[in-house]
Write a structure and sequence with these properties.
With about 250 residues, the chain is an alpha/beta fold. Helices cover about 35% and strands about 25% of the residues. It starts with a strand and ends in a 5-residue tail after the last helix.
C-alpha cells in the first residue's frame, strides 16, 4: 500500500476543479490523499439542493458568477480566490480495518490548521467556528471504496460578498436547505495571512495527522476519471441546474 500523498493540480475552470475533486474519490486511492485548491468567483450548491432556494440567480447572472453543483451534500458556498478549498480523500477502512469517520478526520485537520494560524475555534454543525462566525464549511461524499470530505477556509473573502449571492433562509425550511450561519474570514478576525502561509499550515496539520505526505501529480486513473466526469457531469448544464447526469 502506498503512503499518504498531496496531489498538485489546478484548473482555470471552476467546473473542472469540481470534476477533479470527485475524480480523486472515484479513483479509489489506497491511502489518504490531500488536495488544496481555489476557484475563481462561483457559487457551488450541494448535490440535492434547489438553486432557487439557495442562490440569488439574477445577481449571479448580472455579475457573471456561475452557479455550479458538486457531488457531495452539505450547504451552498461562495468560492473566490480568497477562499481556500481543502479536499481529504480516505479509503473506506483504516489501516487496522476500522471504519473511517470522514467528518471527524476533516474536523481534526481544520481545527489543527486554525490553531497553527493562532485562532481558537470550535466544531459546530458541519463546520468550524471562531466565536459565533463560521470560518470553514464541511461536506462529505461516500462511495463503496472510499470517502471524500472537503472544507472551505475563508482566508480573505469578505462576508458581504457571500451575502451578495446567497439567499436568506426560506420561510418554509426543508431538509436539504443550507443551514445559514454568520461567516467571517481570517482577515475579518484580524489575521491577515496570505494564501501561501495558510496553505503551509494545512500541510503541516495534515502531515501531523496522516504522516509524511508525498507530493505528486495526478495519476493516470485520476486523469481518466476527471475526463469522464467532465463529460457526464461538470460540463453538462443539466447537472448544475438540476443534478441530472448525461447518459
Amino acid at each position: 500500500m502506498t503512503g499518504p500523498s498531496e496531489v498538485v493540480a489546478a484548473f482555470d475552470d471552476p467546473a473542472d476543479n469540481l470534476a477533479f475533486d470527485e475524480a480523486l474519490l472515484r479513483a479509489a486511492p489506497e491511502a489518504p490523499v490531500l488536495w488544496i485548491w481555489r476557484n475563481t468567483d462561483s457559487v457551488v450548491v450541494g448535490r440535492g439542493q434547489k438553486i432557487e432556494r439557495e442562490v440569488k440567480a439574477d445577481v449571479c447572472a448580472s455579475d457573471g458568477v456561475p452557479v455550479l453543483r458538486r457531488a457531495s451534500g452539505g450547504g451552498t458556498v461562495f468560492h473566490d480566490p480568497g477562499n481556500l478549498n481543502i479536499t481529504l480523500v480516505l479509503p473506506g477502512l483504516g489501516l487496522s480495518g476500522e471504519a473511517v469517520k470522514p467528518l471527524e478526520a476533516l474536523g481534526e485537520l481544520m481545527t489543527a490548521t486554525v490553531a497553527e494560524l493562532g485562532l481558537p475555534s470550535r466544531l459546530g454543525d458541519r463546520g468550524l467556528f471562531v466565536g459565533d462566525s463560521k470560518l470553514c464549511g464541511f461536506a462529505v461524499f461516500r462511495t463503496r471504496t472510499g470517502l471524500l470530505a472537503h472544507s472551505t477556509l475563508l482566508v480573505s473573502t469578505a462576508a458581504e460578498r457571500v451575502g451578495r449571492y446567497l439567499t436568506s433562509a426560506p420561510a418554509d425550511p426543508r431538509p436539504l436547505d443550507s443551514h445559514r450561519s454568520q461567516v467571517a474570514s481570517l482577515a475579518e478576525h484580524g489575521l491577515r495571512k496570505g494564501v501561501a502561509e495558510v496553505t503551509a499550515a494545512v500541510r503541516l496539520a495534515a502531515a501531523a495527522q496522516l504522516g509524511e505526505l508525498t507530493t505528486r501529480k495526478p495519476s493516470a486513473r485520476e486523469r481518466e476519471w476527471h475526463g469522464s466526469l467532465r463529460h457526464t457531469r461538470y460540463h453538462y448544464p443539466e447537472w448544475h441546474s438540476e443534478g441530472a447526469q448525461r447518459k
